[in-house]
Amino acid sequence: MGKTGIKPKHFLTINDITPNELLELLDSAIDLKTRGWIAPLKQKMMALVFEKPSLRTRVSFEVAMRQLGGQSLYLSPEEVGLGKRESVPDVARVLSRFVDIIVLRTFAQKNLEVLAEFSSVPVINALSDYEHPCQALADLLTIYEIKGKLKWLTVAYVGDGNNVANSLMQACAMTGVNFHIASPKGYTIDPAVLKKAQTYAKTSGSKIMVTEDPRAAAKDVDVLYTDTWTSMGQETEAAVRREAFADYQINEKLVALAKRNVIIMHCLPAHHGEEVSVGLLDSPQSVVFDQAENRMHAQKALLAWIFAKK
Ligand code: CP
Ligand code: NVA
Fold first, then answer.
1. pTM confidence score
2. Domains along the chain with CATH numbers
3. Region 98-109: what's the mean pLDDT?
């Protein structure tokens, strides 16, 4: 419960918003992009609790909050010791006494759930092993801006069925974007996520393809998307993963199968020469830096919306 007795609005997974709310957030992000610095969140304080490294998420959240008139403080992995130095419920109850919103980057999705349960202020998922919903907002915003629509476009995600894929697949299914995913055996999308995406797709009309064949996934698509083969926390598996994913690189051959005006996306950080061929992210088809910038615009919309809900 919040300080007012009202349950705060959390954003722990992409399912915490409805398809309509997602579309509203995209429109709001486009609007906020033209408005620059405004002050709806004056005297609001945001805590960023990060258990993993970050460039985009930390900076985009900090700048977003400043541009909305609020302030932020960053707590590094060493400082909080979530669940080690102090229990997650205690961290939630203490932070809620000081700040108006908590943004958490963590390993287990459960940490977000427990933090939210015991927090009297909203909690945002800034990446867990399970989902990266803020990334999906920025991804759809980028596609929407560049293509001028979402419905009936097709995104092909080639690579690991990971946190980024989990959020993106559902966000696409929510908004009528067809979604193809090609992953090697053992690294496929979580069946529970697929099921949720299929449920959204029934309403939105989006078509979902799950395959082991990157060529089948890439054929005639509007967007080619990939992410690292080894996510944060999986470093000891890097050699095994490099082998498993060797045929899952986005490169010129795959691009040639897609539509002529295909755009190439990557949440970054990228490993040039692994999941994406060297030079491809520097090509005119790559929109990865617009995508990175949109993290901030999408999160401004999200922050403004969450506080408006409170
Ligand atoms: N895409 C993304 O979340 O980047 P960071 O890990 O640098 O925040
Ligand atoms: N899947 C990657 C995304 C990084 C933004 C990871 O979790 O490390």
1. 0.97
2. 14-131+294-309 (3.40.50.1370), 135-291 (3.40.50.1370)
3. 98
